[in-house]
Structure prediction request, 212 residues.
Amino acid sequence: MLAEPGKAAAALRKLHDHDALKTGPVGILYGDGRGEETELAGAVAGLAEATGARVMPLYRATNERGALALGVGGWDSLEGVEALLSWGPPPAAGLPDGVSFVGAWDYLPRPEHERADVVLAGTSFAEQEGSYTNLEGRVQFLRPPLAVEPPGRHGWEVLAELAGQLGLPLAYSGVFEIQRAIAAAHPELAAIGEPPAPDPPPQPVLLGAARP
Prediction:
């Protein structure tokens, strides 16, 4: 079924008794890519409750689900902000008109960085330790190969040093300490406090006669 623009929520409310949703498992992916799906989110929640489906919203950026859980993302407006440090992709809300200083920490050149007063070299997900929360709400861990030495500073190091200059208490000694603090403060992200072992045991190999 193809819904007309602006009528997706109404179309979803008609699907509660659809034959395709009577046998599971069922997953519902939704989102308009701009975070303007308030009515649609309510319709999806109602459909999921009626059918037992799992809801997986599509977010505007990688790990936005984890950022929203921590309360550090999802702003629709930054007006009134005087100094802004853009971490990775530029904010979806755009740069505020009255901002007097714009800094960017990124590993890709972007047209939006042309307004930045300073651009710092960042590291990509393949070069840093950390975690992200996927669409399903599961915590996934990042661990770069031991042979990869990132050319720039790790994100947590930059933030900790910046916080020190601003007089903020962020004296962390490593990424695992940060993950444990997140797990203690946010039970829904408790898995962050239990990263996998750095050297997992080898998987057993079945031995036997070779077969084509």
The chain has a mean pLDDT of 78. The longest helix spans residues 38-51. Strands lie at 27-30, 54-57, 83-87, 101-106, 118-121, 130-133, 139-142.
